Amino acid sequence: MALQLGDTAPDFTAETTEGTIRFHEFIGDSWVVLFSHPKDFTPVCTTELGYMAKIKPEFDKRGVKIIGLSVDPVDSHKAWSKDIEETQGYAPNYPIIADPERKIANLYGMIHPNALDTLTVRSVFVIGPDKKIKLMLTYPASTGRNFDEILRAIDSLQLTAKHSVATPVNWKEGEDCIIVPSLSDEEAKKKFPTGWKALKPYLRVVPQPR
Ligand code: BEZ
After folding, report:
1. In the chain, N or C terminus with fewer CB closer than 10 Å?
2. For the segment 124-144, what is each residue's pLDDT rounded down to a tens digit?
3. Separation of 42 CA from ligand 1 center, angstroms?
4. In the annotation, is 45 catalytic?
């Protein structure tokens, strides 16, 4: 059965460019972004992995570890890292899992044979410190991902995990939020004593809680 939001991220042991890891140990008390790419020494992947290295400080700031994966071996990942540095200005500064036997790829449903034969597609899993899957997305090989969107989504995930709000369309850190529908007005008065703007009874807008 395919993984779904709220499921526990399957544990595994894997070789990476930074040594052997046990995934649940790696997660520890952090948030994690696990992202797969189809193949080493391919153009779109080269840009993606370089960009992830560039914006790693943004993940660090949010307490998020990042980890890549493809079905190539560690030696290949290491050799390719030099090309990534040369062409993108940043070498991967996070572990990349080697999954030549496709064990982890199959565990996470990262191989979509009708789209891309035996290679991994561009999957992203955001996993919380409780080891549950909070967000998943899947892009085809031909479309590089927007990793700034992953940061934006993490801001929302971390905020909404703490406060009784949801974030509206295109929301960005610092912008107004929406009180979750499950909270009655009575309950909302306690959590948001300075009030809210009710555009409709179900659409109650509040400044971002801190
Ligand atoms: C790429 O990263 O450019 C790529 C990888 C696999 C298939 C197509 C493109």
Report:
1. N
2. 999 999 999 999 999 999 999
3. 5
4. yes
